[in-house]
Amino acid sequence: KNRGRILITCEDRPGIVAAVSEFLTDHEANIIDSSQYSTNPEGGKFFMRIEFECPGLQDRKAQLERDFKAIATNFQMEWKLFFVSELKRAAIFVSKELHCLRELLLEWENGDLVAEIPLVISNHSDAKEYVESFGIPFVHIPASKENRAQAEQQQLQLLDEYNIDFVVLARYMQILTPNFVSSFNQNIINIHHSFLPAFVGAKPYDRAFERGVKLIGATSHYVTNDLDEGPIIEQDIKRVNHRDQVEDLKKNGRIVERSVLVRAVKWHNEDRIIVHGNKTVVF
Amino acid sequence: KNRGRILITCEDRPGIVAAVSEFLTDHEANIIDSSQYSTNPEGGKFFMRIEFECPGLQDRKAQLERDFKAIATNFQMEWKLFFVSELKRAAIFVSKELHCLRELLLEWENGDLVAEIPLVISNHSDAKEYVESFGIPFVHIPASKENRAQAEQQQLQLLDEYNIDFVVLARYMQILTPNFVSSFNQNIINIHHSFLPAFVGAKPYDRAFERGVKLIGATSHYVTNDLDEGPIIEQDIKRVNHRDQVEDLKKNGRIVERSVLVRAVKWHNEDRIIVHGNKTVVF
Amino acid sequence: KNRGRILITCEDRPGIVAAVSEFLTDHEANIIDSSQYSTNPEGGKFFMRIEFECPGLQDRKAQLERDFKAIATNFQMEWKLFFVSELKRAAIFVSKELHCLRELLLEWENGDLVAEIPLVISNHSDAKEYVESFGIPFVHIPASKENRAQAEQQQLQLLDEYNIDFVVLARYMQILTPNFVSSFNQNIINIHHSFLPAFVGAKPYDRAFERGVKLIGATSHYVTNDLDEGPIIEQDIKRVNHRDQVEDLKKNGRIVERSVLVRAVKWHNEDRIIVHGNKTVVF
Amino acid sequence: KNRGRILITCEDRPGIVAAVSEFLTDHEANIIDSSQYSTNPEGGKFFMRIEFECPGLQDRKAQLERDFKAIATNFQMEWKLFFVSELKRAAIFVSKELHCLRELLLEWENGDLVAEIPLVISNHSDAKEYVESFGIPFVHIPASKENRAQAEQQQLQLLDEYNIDFVVLARYMQILTPNFVSSFNQNIINIHHSFLPAFVGAKPYDRAFERGVKLIGATSHYVTNDLDEGPIIEQDIKRVNHRDQVEDLKKNGRIVERSVLVRAVKWHNEDRIIVHGNKTVVF
């Protein structure tokens, strides 16, 4: 496939779009889709995502990267070039609640999530049979407060071994250490079972029930070292009412959690997200 | 019109529905709609709303009330009997932002909000001309931290004079004293411009922007003495994205605020809401 | 479990609720949830669903049924009595598109769809391995216009053998004969991939694309002999835009189809639906 | 204000974005927002909307237009250049149902619809007082099948006199002649009270009620000579249930109609819509 994508962040100033589009034209690439956003045309930050089609892309990758560097240097860009034919490799971390894992594998089987999923890691063994029925290796690594460092070392080694690009925490109930987070910076996607910033932390459905809210929600975000405070990728809600007990909130919540997480994973996988400070630009 | 409604709260135990429906049958009333809810069939709280049609209701009101007391005493009910033909009287409090007021008057003009609106009170005069164009009296009562007690006294006197049943705070930016709140207990409906409990207090849109949320919301609730902590009646949200600046959040928020407030006001007006602790049952 | 449900349809007249609730009180049953609806209090149709808790229900089933007959006869009711502990048995029919089947099994595994699923039938063998990984028997019965009668005979025999209560057409692309439909009257649930009545019949996504709609949808309905004209149970939509090609509509549509079908199946399974003419009452 | 917008339609081929962005850079304009879409990178149609900021735009308008012609000719573009400071002028046509008119004026008063509304025309006089309370001229032109040609002549003359850019049919219940439609080609926005293509034509709510749908909707579209068949701009729906009678569908529908129409009018007003065949591209 001859499809590529460029993600760019830099200071806004006139001429960026012209320079990039000229570069693509010069390399016989046709722009398929292009999105841009500026926090402020006068001295703000500029973000861009371009998807392009370039004949013979396989043989021109190195040259494209080399040639783009000149532009990037000129505009002091942070940038990434992706080749769509090189599928990203995701590892899923899961605990005892399997609905998010199941949704991810369902969409993956449907062909609606086009990535490789070569590894599932869990601190319990509940998911083992299910995961292996898809032909995916499942590794059980008991993890708790006590053995965190050791468990993470084992995990990081596996992620390295399997050549993993990004990690999906599909209701993985363990906290990660700064060491782990920095190893996969902006490449760990979590699902939190509330519409953040409401109900940060543990037991959000119990607290939502206590407060008597009429909506419950879920939030997918990149993991940082501040619990549930990372850049939000996607959120959604579901209407509940006075009849719904905590168990019903959880049941309804599972439906929101899995759709929100899958959307976030798809967008990450399609290079649609640029992190800026503690926010995301989602093109 | 021969339409009436009963709202009931009591301890759950067998026989309540039988007793109430027998009572209505005995008084030749036909049940049009009936909703019930129990927090727990074993020793929980029981809630019920019945709408009925009773021929010659106008002449039987007093008798119905008298006769129902026997049942109510037997089951130790809190209860209210409403006659649909007696329209509720609402006063709207407003400040400088008029979109919620406008929506209420729009629905009222359409005939979609069937109540009387004999009074609008504001601490500014911006709404005067608009309100009066509907033939509704507008009273300007400057209010601030400094003169709160005095302003409220004037307001309470007007509410009394106009025989007001409930008060709608349509983006009225003043805090009410416990004295005022207790005078209209469970009859003051506020609209807060966030999906509570996120962003309690001032400037929710600014804080939503800072946090980078992907949904903004609004919450309608009964006013208590704890700021933004009263029983939630209704909530809704609207999707936003990285392009939306604080001003855009406010603009989009206005659309949510007005629809959420109007739904809450309609439900209150149709006797659909029972407050229980710090929550609402909405039938 | 001591939980039961009664569904009632009859002519509306005063005294129905009183009679039914007295009956339950007399049998020491406590009403847990009750919903009713009347098309018209004067000479309309009356519908009711009551969920009750009755100590020692297992031993009193026969007596309850016998005693209720007197009331039912008096009010000329159509009625059904369900015991929640007797799980309904569903057969799923599927073709080559498996997303709806997968969603059903996912919710079933989560414990969010509480029924028995003892049988999956398909006119292709694509789903075989997946279904069997859940320990559910999978039967491949080739079906087409040509062998319809014969295939249906085989299907009906299996449904009988497995004691099936209702059939879910989870994107089963074959038309059923009147003979089959009448054997499972109001017990066959289909998912159609459009918001009916728009795009009745084949290729709805292609036609939605042609028309340039901004919403696509899905509709779950009971199957009758009029194609896509049966009583609608549930519908939902998803926003699309000009970028979405037919393939994207299908991809997005799959998400709507599966959630709409699962909701309909859950409601049917919880005895929440009464068919009336060509419409449904969903309590 | 120095804000401008360009809308472009042409055959897709490499170099378009480069040429346009270079043009803007050469004229010292900074791109604020840019959206593009191609039906097919190989020989498809290409659409683009660019919003730019250009210092001293007021004095350079003529030159910009002149210079852009060279590019437009080269790529055989259909194009339009808009200057944001030149507010569009809208005329609203209304009949007896005023909710859409009221919503438009509410958003206009809020400052959330930034256009000029110098004229309201109606075939009834119901809206007269309301419209004039906003200081907007109201003209009553009786219109029916019989006097259509004559009424339209009078309308067209007024539209000309008031220098109207586009017409909003805010539940105006008359059919327009091809002559009128061609005078404001792609500049007449209608609201139809169903989710098209369901329930084309008269009495959609009655038919929705008959069919027993669980969603009602509204569709905003450009008017063509085929009734309710013009390019769809926006659609939305609202959930209803078996309790809702035709009157309730209408009541709920009014809320959808007004929000859908206002969104369409805002998008048209912000030059976000390009018509292509019988569809719209909405950027």
Which whole number gives the mean pLDDT of chain A?
96
Overall structural domain count of chain A: 2
What structural class results from the helix and strand content of chain A?
Answer: alpha/beta
Written as H for each helix and E for each strand, in order along the chain, the element string of chain A is: EHEEHEEHEHEHEHEHEEHEE
Uncertain residue ranges of chain A: none
Please name the CATH architecture of the largest domain in chain A: 3-Layer(aba) Sandwich
- The tally of helices of chain A reads 8
Question: Quick one: biggest sheet of chain A?
Answer: 7 strands, mixed
Q: What shape does the CA trace of chain A take?
A: globular
Largest interface pair: A-B, 27 and 27 residues
What is the quaternary state of this protein? Answer: homotetramer
CATH superfamily of the largest domain in chain A: Formyl transferase, N-terminal domain
Task: Name the CATH class of the largest domain in chain A.
Answer: Alpha Beta
Strand order of the largest sheet of chain A: 7-6-5-8-9-10-11
CATH topology value of the largest domain in chain A: Rossmann fold
Rounded to the nearest angstrom, the radius of gyration of chain A is 21 Å
Question: Would you kindly provide a written description of the structure presented here, covering whatever features stand out?
Answer:
4 copies of one chain form a homotetramer. The first copy, chain A, is an alpha/beta fold and about 280 residues long. The first copy, chain A, has 2 domains: about 80 residues, ACT domain (Alpha-Beta Plaits), CATH 3.30.70.260; about 190 residues, 3-Layer(aba) Sandwich (Rossmann fold). Chain A is about 35% helix and about 30% strand. In chain A, helix 1 runs antiparallel to helix 2 and helix 7 crosses helix 8. The longest helix of chain A has 24 residues. Chain A starts with a strand and ends with a strand. Chains A and B meet through strand 11 and strand 13 of A and strand 11 and strand 13 of B.
